[in-house]
Write a structure and sequence with these properties.
Chain A is about 0% helix and about 55% strand. Chain A is globular and about 40 Å long. Chain A has about 110 residues and is mostly beta strands. By secondary structure, chain B is an all-beta fold. Chain B has strands at about 5, 10-15, 20-25, 30-40, 40-50, 55, 65-70, 75-80, 85-95, 105, 110-115. Classes of the chains: A mainly beta (about 110), B mainly beta (about 120).
Chain lengths: ~110, ~120
């Protein structure tokens, strides 16, 4: 099946630092999504991207839909302790309802 | 609105036992999904229902059955549980697609299942 390669697998940073993570695929996606999962909870949508080249921000979060439609990036600026969690990218193709998820990036923020 | 709710939150089964995981959404969404999440594997789609009355297999359907009871409810059944089905199970529902733009999926809090 389709696979998304998400990196890095984990990150340990100091509060206040900026964070970058990305997802790549061998297949083209029409939609890229970024979710965050807190411990013991379900994933929550952070940002949705619908056009190649699109750059979208949500507070301190910025995500980009790669121009090739095969990758996406998520940046978090000035990290804070509540940014801790697992971040997942997900891609969707055409009108197919199925999401393909990356394996996640575990973010730890040291106060 | 409660969004997507799942019951139970936790369950321990013995190998060979059966159980049904319940999911309900109050957002009037047509599409609903069941995923499993295993360490290092991300989320994998088990089954989905694009609309009331239809269900389709996802990536990992073996050992599971689903029922779309009505527009609100989508249940997942394990007929004969196996240790390999120990996982966290998430239900999700999504808004309508607009043209080729797929609807956003909203997730429930999950059911943690341990099969001994």
């Amino acid at each position: 099946g389709q696979q998304l390669n998400q990196s890095p697998q984990s990150m340990f940073i100091q509060e206040g630092e900026d964070v970058s993570m990305n997802c790549t695929s061998s297949s083209i996606f029409n939609t890229w999504l970024w979710y965050k999962q807190d411990p013991g909870e379900g994933p929550v949508l952070l940002i949705a991207l619908y056009k190649a080249g699109e750059l979208t921000s949500n507070g301190r979060l910025t995500a980009q839909f790669g121009i090739t439609r095969k990758d996406s990036f998520l940046n978090i600026s000035a990290s804070i302790p509540s940014d801790v969690g697992i971040y997942f990218c997900a891609g969707q193709r055409g009108s197919n309802y199925k999401l393909t998820f990356g394996k996640g990036t575990l973010l730890t923020v040291n106060p | 609105n409660a969004g997507v709710t799942q019951t139970p939150k936790f369950q321990v089964l013995k190998t060979g036992q059966s159980m049904t995981l319940q999911c309900a959404q109050d957002m009037n969404h047509n599409s609903m999904y069941w995923y499993r999440q295993d360490p290092g594997m991300g989320l994998r789609l088990i089954y989905y229902s694009a609309s009331e009355g239809t269900t389709d297999k996802g990536e990992v359907p073996n050992g599971y059955n689903v029922s779309r009871l009505n527009k609100r409810e989508f249940s997942l059944r394990l007929e004969s549980a196996a240790p390999s089905q120990t996982s966290v199970y998430f239900c999700a529902s999504s808004e309508e697609a607009v043209g080729w733009v797929s609807g956003t999926q909203y997730f429930g809090p999950g059911t943690r299942l341990l099969v001994l």
